[in-house]
Design goal:
Length: 185
């Protein structure tokens, strides 16, 4: 096929690029079919069915829960920034930190500390990003249910994916990570 043949797939003898899945081009592809559930659900579905209210009603494995406390629980982020990315959520459906009770605030802190110890032991991470995005304007993906992020970081976790392709490569499956963290809890 010549450059002139790129005019369109209706030219006799021309094969459309979509019919040549094995032909290399300048694009690298990272297949992430698990994200389709999130994409297809859309923002309205996330608001209608809060994932942080639904998780505790499931088994620990199905809800990705690693620890259940008295007023809050810890679970893996379904769409992690790094392997072992945990969330700490109150069972109550509250949107912001100032709406949490004193007991919830204290348990969020205690579970966060323990999660850091567990993650250091399980993954030998070198540091953490810890934080809460309060409201959609602040970057909260689920803005109607309070949750704190605990993201393990490693000195050696920098690679070209996040820098060049704005992509994260996660070396472990969520189920394996959840089991390791839950076992170490």
């Amino acid at each position: 096929m010549t450059h002139a043949d790129a005019a369109g797939p209706d030219i006799p003898g021309l094969v459309a690029a979509s019919d040549l899945p094995g032909v290399p081009d300048e694009f690298q592809r990272l297949w992430t079919p698990h994200r389709m559930a999130y994409i297809q659900a859309g923002a309205d579905a996330m608001r209608a069915a809060c994932p942080f209210c639904a998780a505790p009603e499931k088994s620990d494995e199905d809800g990705l829960i690693v620890h259940r406390g008295r007023t809050v629980y810890a679970l893996l982020n379904l769409f992690p920034y790094n392997s072992g990315h945990l969330l700490v959520c109150p069972y109550r459906h509250v949107a912001t930190y100032d709406q949490a009770t004193d007991d919830e605030v204290a348990e969020i802190g205690a579970i966060t500390q323990h999660a850091m110890q567990v993650l250091r032991g399980v993954s030998q991470c070198d540091g953490f990003n810890i934080g809460m995005n309060q409201g959609r304007v602040a970057g909260a993906g689920v803005d109607e249910h309070l949750h704190q992020h605990i993201v393990p970081r490693w000195e050696t976790d920098a690679n070209f994916f996040p820098i060049i392709a704005r992509t994260k490569a996660l070396p472990q499956l969520l189920g394996e990570v959840r089991q390791a963290i839950a076992d170490a809890w």
